Amino acid sequence: MTAGRASDALPMLPTLLAMLALAAGTFLLRLSGPALRARVGLPERAEKLLEVSAVLLLAALAATSALTEGHAFAGPARPLGVLVGGVLAWRRAPFLVVVLAAAGTAALLRASGVP
């Protein structure tokens, strides 16, 4: 190994150590949930709020993905496609039908000139 290559690898050491520390911290945090579940109890109201917050977070993510592209409005075709897919999913249509209908709606609208 030449001296140039050894000096190139030295700056990677802090990055590698940071990655290992984050990986260990993530593992311990994930392990603490099941380990502490039986020991730590939350009030029933707090548990319901946590469940609702997970649903709201998922809905916000879906709305952001459906309505925006970059930092601007995606246009009406994408939200209408998502709406069609959402209605079909709510009516318990098969997953493949939901995906194809949503994509097909957006594609037909864009083909007809709707942005």
Chain-averaged pLDDT: 90
Taken as a percent bin, the fraction of beta residues is under 5%
The number of helical elements comes to 5
Helix content: over 70%
Distance between the termini: 57 Å
| Major sheet details | 2 strands, antiparallel
Strand arrangement, major sheet? 1-2
Structural class: mainly alpha
H-E order: HHHEEHH
How many E strands? Answer: 2
Morphology call: flat
Rg over alpha carbons: 24 Å
**Low-confidence blocks of residues:** none
Describe this protein with a few key phrases.
single chain, 115 residues, 2 strands, mainly alpha, 5 helices
Describe this structure in words.
- This protein has about 120 residues and is mainly alpha-helical.
- About 75% of the residues lie in helices and about 5% in strands.
- The chain contains five helices and two strands, in the order H-H-H-E-E-H-H.
- Strands 1-2 form a two-stranded antiparallel sheet.
- Helix 4 packs antiparallel against helix 5.
- The model has no long low-confidence stretch (mean pLDDT about 90).
